[in-house]
Amino acid sequence: MNARLWPAVVLLGLTACTNTNPLLRGTGDLGLVVERSAGSVMLIETTRRSEIGRVAGLGDLSHASAVFSRDGRYAYVFGRDGGLSKVDLLRGRLERRVVQSGNAIGGAISQDGAVVAVANYVPGGIRLFDAATLEPLAEVPTGAKVVGIADAPGNRFVFSLFESGEIWVVDASRPRSPQVVKIKDIGRQPYDGFVTPDGRHYIAGLYGEDGLALVDLWNVGAGAKRILDGYGRGEAPLPVYKMPHLRGWAAAGRYLFLPAIGRHEVLVLDRTTWQEAARIPVHGQPVFAVAQPGGRRVWVNFAFPRNGVVQVIDTASMEVVKEIRPGRAVLHLEFTPRGEQAWVSSRDDDVVVVYDTASFAETARLRAANPSGIFLASRAAMTGF
User: Fold this and answer.
1) Local structure of residue 347 (DSSP, 8 states)
2) Parallel/antiparallel/unpaired status of strands 50-55 and 251-252
3) Per-residue confidence at 243, pLDDT binned at 50, 70, 90?
4) Which of 303, 369, 312 is nearest to 335 (CA)?
5) In sequence order, what DSSP letters do the residues of 105-126 get, joined into one string?
């Protein structure tokens, strides 16, 4: 090439690299906040702790959750009205929406990112959809409400059945003809469940009795094992105003930090022995116990009427070391992937509050319409989320 042309070529390259097209960005710091009363999601970015858009028309989001495509660009939002909505985070728009049942409670995406599963209350069962097109692929009827659905390695979905007390494992490697393994007699009224971050175990919480059910996903044929059996120790539970939520985000090192049903306690489970390691007295009935990345702290929010407080547990001392008050009706907590920020939703004050996790200082406060769930696109790389 003529040496006199090199400056022009370099200048052209620099021009291309500084293109300010807003679509030319990654999604690693993006996410969404569910605005439950408005049927919309607020799009957020964590680098500047700001709102970048809003997507409306998502139906009933009074109980909503989201998962992400493997590249983090698309969010699949599961609404209470049975709606499955595919949202483009980069273009800030609704790509497609289907109403696939009368009442849905959540969903999951397969390990390879090809299949989205929706868990249904009415008519029960799960339905599988093509992640690219939302084309229906298959239905797995259960005759009972599906709760605690999570993805597992091997393109499997694991979930519990509330009325029948069962755990089902569905292999969706061939999504038009899924294969089902049924584990019966796990305990009364499983209400939620989760897969551990390593993908090895599925744990279902039980509402009808004190205890949890554990399944080793490396050996599904062995059935379920009871753990933390009788943790209530014969004491009458308090009235339950909001069911606790279980997810793999409660894992901190060798321990799981789990909300106790009808009790003002967080239960600590040793993952090496599956025995109780401790129980930590807390402000109220815990709803979420979320481990900060790195595992040093666990942040806990609470059910009505003590739901304006978040407490922070130090996992070394197993004690509460900090209490913050983000606003009324704290519903959800989410950490950035390396744990430097905590995002907290306050439904009744219409705000999302961002905290610096090192100092607990408030660094941002974003207006939102009755915010509930906060979901960051970094979940795309996590099992069970």
Assistant:
1) T
2) unpaired
3) confident
4) 312
5) EEEEE-TTS-EEEEEEEES-SE
Amino acid at residue number 37: S
Euclidean distance between CA atoms 132 and 69, whole angstroms: 9
189: alpha, beta or left? (left if phi > 0; alpha if psi -120 to 50): left
Query: Given its phi and psi angles, is residue 24 left (phi above 0), alpha (psi -120 to 50 degrees) or beta?
Result: beta
Burial of 191 (0-12, 13-18, 19+ CB in 10 A): buried
Listed in sequence order, the residues at least 6 apart from 308 whose beta carbon sits closer than 8 Å to its beta carbon are: 325, 326, 327, 328, 329, 330, 346
E strands, 166-230, where?
166-171, 179-183, 190-195, 201-206, 212-216, 224-227
Relative to beta strand 319-324, strand 330-335 is: unpaired
Token couple for 66: 């989201």
Q: Tell me the HSE value of 243 on the side-chain side, using a 13 A CA sphere.
A: 14
Q: pLDDT, tens digit, for every residue of 6-57?
A: 444 333 343 334 445 555 889 999 999 999 999 999 999 999 999 999 999 9
The predicted model gives 217-238 an average pLDDT of 88
- Reading the block at residue 220, the tokens are 């599904």
Q: How many DSSP H helices and E strands does the chain contain? A: 1, 32
Alpha helices, H only, 177-286: none
pLDDT of res. 13: 41
